[in-house]
Amino acid sequence: MSLAHLCARALARWQLQHATRLRNNMPRNAFSTSSVLSGNRAIVYNINGDPARVLSAISFPDLPPPPPNTLNIRLLLAPINPADINVIEGVYPAKPEPDVSLSQAKDHPLFVGGNEGLGKVVDIGEGVIGLQKGDWVVMTRSQSGTWSSAKNVASSDVLKVPNQGLSETQAATITVNPPTAYNMLHDFAQLVEGDWIVQNGANSAVGQAVIQIAAAKGYKTINFIRDRQDVELLKKHLESLGAAHVVTYDELSDKSLREKVRTWTGGKGIRLGLNCVSGKTTTLMARLLGDSAHLVSYGAMSKEPLSLSTSLFIFKNLTCHGFWQTRWYRDKSVEERQELFETLTALMRDGKLQGPDHEILTIGGMESDVSASEKIRDLVARLGRGMYGKKVLLKIDETT
Fold this sequence. Notes:
33% of the residues lie in helices and 23% in strands. By secondary structure, it is α/β, with parallel strands linked by helices.
């Protein structure tokens, strides 16, 4: 066994001895929340289910010095993405591994929530090259457990991002939504300036990134959103990002829209459609696509199947694809990942790609684990009821 593995196991044993203990007679979805051993905090679960019921906060001690080829990082911000909720529910294809440093026993594994986040390097193990204390890093390994105040990570599982010219929010949200938008715009249809794109879920973080990146490239977007009380304000916001047209799903159902679209595009065929909703709205949106167009699906927020007319394939030569950013990371080299990040950070620094409209939920260091647990459960319950129109990011302070 290598020195790195031995040190990593020693780290796990040390944290296991000092971490908050699970009560022997507790319910399966409850956690010990002692704050005697203060220092850090994580949002965890030990069974899949409704996040508003299974999530809890636990405190754990300060990290020891990092083993070789690893880093200790302080998590600055960590988004709550729809996929994170699906992982906790147990319905997402990518499954996390339990955090061995927090789990008391194999029959009581603990999983730390979160896939995306921004960390600051606070300590560096032997053998780490290209990083120093104070650098900003983002996670590139899926399901890495970012809903925590601190974490020990392998240097191979992070990429450095510039801390000049970017906000913490932009950096914390750079690994999922902007890359998804960028890659879908570039990997399927060979678009040129003046080409048209349609997308649903346009007010999502990916949708807003699509609008901005497309505008920077000279592509024009027709964007579909759910009707709501403040829909006109939302339309104006998306138009300010560069949307050519913003349409509700109710308007999409109106047969007269097809003629409006022909007028908007000047009769030019729409080359690319992006789908994160599926169901009836995508069936209707697909009918707007031109000959030899591409429909790329990256979500199914309606939880309804994708149903398309056979005539679209026979007479319009439609090609359908699925896209999963996690697979893209798996298939690409470190150099290709770094190149993508440099492209995105350049767009951000130039003001062409704004961070998402967001809200930060802070879990303060003086709060008890019980209070922190109630706060996170209340948040995910409201998210589940669709009560947020913004991206929510967690800021978990060190405990005191």
